[in-house]
Amino acid sequence: MPFYDINEMKTAMDKTAPGMAATVVGEFMKVGVMTYEDEIGPPPHFHPNEEQFVLVLEGELRMVLGDEVKNIGPGELIHIPRNTAHTVRAVGGPARFFTAKHPVGDGELSQDYNLAPNHEELAKKLAG
Protein backbone atom coordinates (compact mmCIF):
# COMPACT_ATOMS: atom_id res chain seq x y z
CA MET A 1 0.00 0.00 0.00
CA PRO A 2 1.21 3.53 -0.68
CA PHE A 3 1.92 4.77 2.85
CA TYR A 4 4.67 7.35 3.31
CA ASP A 5 6.47 8.69 6.36
CA ILE A 6 7.60 12.17 5.34
CA ASN A 7 10.43 12.04 7.88
CA GLU A 8 11.86 8.97 6.15
CA MET A 9 11.38 10.00 2.52
CA LYS A 10 14.41 10.55 0.31
CA THR A 11 15.01 14.23 -0.42
CA ALA A 12 16.66 15.99 -3.34
CA MET A 13 17.52 19.57 -4.20
CA ASP A 14 14.61 21.49 -5.72
CA LYS A 15 15.28 22.74 -9.26
CA THR A 16 13.74 26.19 -8.72
CA ALA A 17 15.14 27.19 -5.33
CA PRO A 18 18.01 25.99 -3.16
CA GLY A 19 15.73 23.93 -0.92
CA MET A 20 15.11 20.25 -0.30
CA ALA A 21 12.10 18.37 -1.64
CA ALA A 22 10.66 14.94 -0.94
CA THR A 23 8.13 14.12 -3.66
CA VAL A 24 5.50 11.52 -4.45
CA VAL A 25 3.77 11.15 -7.80
CA GLY A 26 0.27 9.74 -8.16
CA GLU A 27 -1.98 9.17 -11.14
CA PHE A 28 -3.53 12.66 -11.20
CA MET A 29 -1.46 14.79 -8.83
CA LYS A 30 2.04 15.26 -7.47
CA VAL A 31 2.93 16.27 -3.93
CA GLY A 32 6.02 17.29 -2.07
CA VAL A 33 7.33 18.27 1.31
CA MET A 34 9.64 21.24 0.83
CA THR A 35 12.18 22.70 3.24
CA TYR A 36 13.69 26.15 2.69
CA GLU A 37 16.40 27.58 4.91
CA ASP A 38 16.03 31.13 6.26
CA GLU A 39 15.67 33.75 3.47
CA ILE A 40 15.47 31.07 0.75
CA GLY A 41 12.71 30.64 -1.83
CA PRO A 42 12.11 30.54 -5.58
CA PRO A 43 11.97 33.57 -7.87
CA PRO A 44 8.45 34.88 -8.61
CA HIS A 45 6.82 32.52 -11.09
CA PHE A 46 3.52 31.12 -12.36
CA HIS A 47 2.13 27.80 -13.56
CA PRO A 48 0.00 28.06 -16.74
CA ASN A 49 -1.09 24.42 -16.57
CA GLU A 50 -1.17 23.60 -12.86
CA GLU A 51 -3.07 24.67 -9.81
CA GLN A 52 -1.31 24.32 -6.48
CA PHE A 53 -2.01 24.10 -2.76
CA VAL A 54 0.53 24.93 -0.04
CA LEU A 55 0.13 23.92 3.62
CA VAL A 56 2.73 25.30 6.04
CA LEU A 57 3.95 22.62 8.45
CA GLU A 58 6.76 24.38 10.35
CA GLY A 59 8.29 27.83 10.42
CA GLU A 60 7.09 30.92 8.62
CA LEU A 61 6.93 31.87 4.95
CA ARG A 62 6.50 35.33 3.46
CA MET A 63 4.27 34.88 0.43
CA VAL A 64 3.42 37.03 -2.55
CA LEU A 65 0.30 35.74 -4.29
CA GLY A 66 -0.89 38.00 -7.08
CA ASP A 67 -1.21 41.43 -5.44
CA GLU A 68 -1.26 40.10 -1.87
CA VAL A 69 1.72 39.87 0.48
CA LYS A 70 1.33 37.92 3.72
CA ASN A 71 3.36 36.00 6.26
CA ILE A 72 1.96 32.50 6.69
CA GLY A 73 2.63 29.92 9.36
CA PRO A 74 1.81 26.38 10.50
CA GLY A 75 -1.71 25.26 9.66
CA GLU A 76 -2.31 27.87 6.97
CA LEU A 77 -3.46 26.50 3.60
CA ILE A 78 -3.10 28.53 0.42
CA HIS A 79 -4.66 27.87 -2.99
CA ILE A 80 -2.66 29.10 -5.99
CA PRO A 81 -4.78 29.17 -9.16
CA ARG A 82 -3.25 28.58 -12.58
CA ASN A 83 -1.54 31.64 -14.14
CA THR A 84 -1.21 33.45 -10.78
CA ALA A 85 2.24 34.91 -10.12
CA HIS A 86 3.56 33.91 -6.70
CA THR A 87 6.64 33.29 -4.59
CA VAL A 88 7.62 32.48 -1.01
CA ARG A 89 10.70 32.71 1.17
CA ALA A 90 11.41 31.42 4.64
CA VAL A 91 11.59 34.11 7.30
CA GLY A 92 12.97 33.87 10.84
CA GLY A 93 14.53 30.45 10.26
CA PRO A 94 13.85 27.37 8.17
CA ALA A 95 10.33 26.59 6.96
CA ARG A 96 8.75 23.32 5.90
CA PHE A 97 5.59 22.99 3.86
CA PHE A 98 3.49 20.46 1.98
CA THR A 99 2.54 21.24 -1.60
CA ALA A 100 0.18 19.52 -4.04
CA LYS A 101 -0.15 20.20 -7.76
CA HIS A 102 -2.52 19.05 -10.46
CA PRO A 103 -2.15 17.74 -13.14
CA VAL A 104 0.72 15.33 -12.57
CA GLY A 105 2.47 16.00 -15.90
CA ASP A 106 5.89 14.33 -15.86
CA GLY A 107 5.91 14.20 -12.04
CA GLU A 108 8.47 16.95 -11.49
CA LEU A 109 7.23 19.63 -9.09
CA SER A 110 9.00 22.29 -11.16
CA GLN A 111 7.74 21.06 -14.55
CA ASP A 112 5.27 23.93 -15.17
CA TYR A 113 7.50 26.64 -13.67
CA ASN A 114 7.69 29.91 -15.61
CA LEU A 115 9.40 33.09 -14.46
CA ALA A 116 6.75 35.78 -13.84
CA PRO A 117 6.89 38.66 -16.34
CA ASN A 118 6.86 41.11 -13.41
CA HIS A 119 9.29 39.04 -11.31
CA GLU A 120 11.44 42.04 -10.33
CA GLU A 121 8.43 43.96 -8.99
CA LEU A 122 7.19 40.89 -7.06
CA ALA A 123 10.66 40.26 -5.63
CA LYS A 124 10.62 43.80 -4.22
CA LYS A 125 7.22 43.11 -2.59
CA LEU A 126 8.64 39.93 -1.07
CA ALA A 127 11.58 41.84 0.40
CA GLY A 128 9.11 44.20 2.07
Molecular structure report:
The strands form 3 sheets. Strands 1-2-3-10-5-8 form a 6-stranded antiparallel beta sheet, with no helix packed on it. The protein has a 3-stranded antiparallel beta sheet with strand order 7-6-9, covered by helices on one side. It has a two-stranded antiparallel sheet with strand order 4-11. The chain is built from 1 helix and 11 strands. It is globular. A hairpin with a 4-residue loop joins strand 2 (20-25) and strand 3. It is mainly beta and 128 residues long. The mean pLDDT is 92. The chain has one domain (13-127): Jelly Rolls (Sandwich).
Question: Which secondary structure elements does this structure contain, and how are they paired or packed?
Answer:
Elements: E1 12-13, E2 20-25, E3 30-36, E4 45-46, E5 51-58, E6 61-65, E7 68-72, E8 77-80, E9 86-90, E10 95-102, E11 114-115, H1 119-127
Antiparallel strand pairs: 1-2, 2-3, 3-10, 4-11, 5-8, 5-10, 6-7, 6-9
Calculate the terminal CA-CA distance, rounded to whole Å. 45 Å
CATH architecture, please? Sandwich
Please name the fourth-level CATH homologous superfamily: Jelly Rolls
Derived structural class = mainly beta
The amount of beta strand, in percent, is 35-45%
The best one-word shape is globular
Mean pLDDT across every amino acid position = 92
Pattern of helices and strands: EEEEEEEEEEEH
Query: What is the CATH class name?
Result: Mainly Beta
Biggest pleated-sheet summary: 6 strands, antiparallel
Could you say what the CATH topology is called?
Jelly Rolls
Number of helices: 1
Strand segment count: 11
Spatial strand order of the main sheet: 1-2-3-10-5-8
Helix content: under 10%
Low-confidence spans? none
